[in-house]
Design a protein that fits this description.
One of its GO terms (molecular function) is kinase activity. By secondary structure, the protein is an alpha+beta fold. The protein is built from 19 helices and 14 strands. Helix 2 packs parallel to helix 7, helix 13 runs antiparallel to helix 14 and helix 14 packs across helix 15.
Length: about 450
């Protein structure tokens, strides 16, 4: 299949072609490492060589993952949330390239967009709109968004899935799983392979926009008229197209780049409040934490979009999370061990010392020690270095702890939102939020 044919279909669907592009990443990384080693032998400074290698690696990462879209793009977006955990001396070249992946990808041609709309909304789909902009307003991992006017005059966002997204997503994730170790350096302290496995497990739901529309309807109904949050209403939906109300606001990515302190704090407070209140209010958790999905409106409310990844929590946040957090904060190690065993964080066959478990968990509760906490890259980098150092006791302790299935998406989403808070450098009343919304923490 030629590049032209692939582009006409929106997503390059030939498995061999996509695999070859993904394979170029580890080969490129390895080639640069060998070249850098040779240049250091000839006397070129290590810092200079490392900086040049990192810059080229970042450029290649964005070009390959961004062009392929699909699972590769989605993986890049997931990694971009964790860039705040990477030490500054290594992160600078990756930061811009990775954060671009949160909101940028090459668009598909207008004729292909029209073809998908014909298939999903019927050949008379144009009659449902007063106007439709063929130029996409946003482009992401498995779909792109167009601005339009619905037939009743409402301004709407039309998300159209790339043709071949299902095949490309599965192929990418299988291939990226083989290369997971090579990406580990981009996210110290983050288990990249389980991240890929989880993305693979969730992708079938994300590929059917009807499920996404149902989730968004539930959030929109609960937060309708809310003084803090806005969720755009769903206007129409089909398996590969979803139409929602158009919303405006300042993306968190822009606030991260140049927002003032008060705006950063406001955005961080709202982000954390939404994260912990949703499971109680909607029995669902928005599980796609990256700055492109959150907008701060002029009226001070946080607008939340993109409900493709949502965790179902029919009983809200598990009570065990609050109990474990509180006991670790208070240093009650024996009670902590009891609750950890009760909720299967420590299995019956695991032998681990109570003092080691407390030493591992207690630093994570630091944001709850006082009424407010200022999140920072330095703090997150310290946590990542602590648990990611393979020679440390904390690393060995962490390997002995189990993560029960019902906590998997909560853990990943909390980690992702923490990364955004650290990118914002926000000062947040974390403890007030925990006492209000996390079962078992205050009672």
């Amino acid at each position: 299949m030629t590049d032209t044919a692939a582009d006409d279909r929106g997503l390059p669907s030939g498995t061999a072609a996509r695999t070859a592009k993904l394979a170029s990443l580890p080969l490129g990384f390895a080639g640069r490492a060998m070249s850098g080693w040779g240049r250091r032998l000839t006397g070129q400074g290590a810092d200079e060589v490392n900086a040049e290698m990192s810059a080229k690696a970042a450029e290649q990462l964005f070009q390959v993952l961004g062009t392929l879209k699909g699972g590769a793009m989605k993986f890049g977006q997931a990694l971009s949330v964790f860039e705040a955990a990477v030490p500054d001396e290594y992160a600078a070249p990756y930061r811009e390239a990775l954060t671009k992946l949160q909101s940028a990808a090459p668009p598909m041609p207008a004729k292909q967009t029209h073809r998908v709309l014909d298939e999903q909304l019927g050949s008379a789909w144009r009659t449902r709109f007063s106007a439709f902009d063929d130029e996409p307003a946003a482009s992401a991992s498995i779909g792109q968004v167009h601005r339009a006017i619905w037939h009743d005059g409402r301004e709407v966002a039309v998300k159209v899935q790339y043709p071949g997204a299902d095949e490309a997503l599965r192929s990418d994730l299988r291939q990226l799983m083989r290369f997971s170790r090579l990406f580990q350096t981009l996210a110290p302290g983050t288990e990249v392979k389980p991240l890929l496995a989880e993305l693979s497990d969730r992708m079938n739901e994300e590929l059917d926009y009807r499920g996404e529309a149902d989730y968004q309807r539930a959030f929109a109904a609960e937060f309708d008229g809310d003084p803090q949050f806005v969720v755009p209403k769903v206007v129409a939906s089909a398996p590969k197209v979803v139409v929602t109300e158009w919303v405006t606001g300042t993306p968190l990515a822009s606030i991260i780049a140049d927002g003032d302190t008060a705006t950063r704090d406001k955005a961080g407070q709202l982000l954390l409040e939404f994260h912990y209140s949703s499971p109680e209010r909607v029995r669902l958790l928005h599980s796609d934490p990256h700055p492109g999905n959150f907008l701060l409106r002029d009226d001070g409310r946080l607008c939340v979009i993109d409900f493709g990844a949502v965790a179902r929590l029919p009983r809200g946040i598990p009570r065990g999370l609050g109990e474990i957090t509180r006991l670790a904060l208070d240093g009650k190690q024996e009670e902590l061990m009891t609750v950890l065993r009760e909720h299967r964080f420590i299995t019956a066959t695991t032998s681990v010392k109570a003092e080691d478990v407390l030493a591992y968990l207690a630093p994570f509760t630091e944001p709850l020690a006082d009424r407010t906490f200022t999140f920072s890259r330095d703090w997150l980098q310290g946590q990542a270095a602590r648990v990611g150092d393979i020679g440390s006791k904390d690393f060995r302790t962490g390997r002995l702890l189990n993560l029960p299935a019902e906590y998997l998406l909560i853990h990943r989403t909390t980690a992702g939102n923490t990364g955004i808070l650290c990118q914002l450098g926000a000062t947040v009343a974390v403890r007030d939020i925990a006492e209000k919304w996390i079962p078992g923490f205050a009672d």
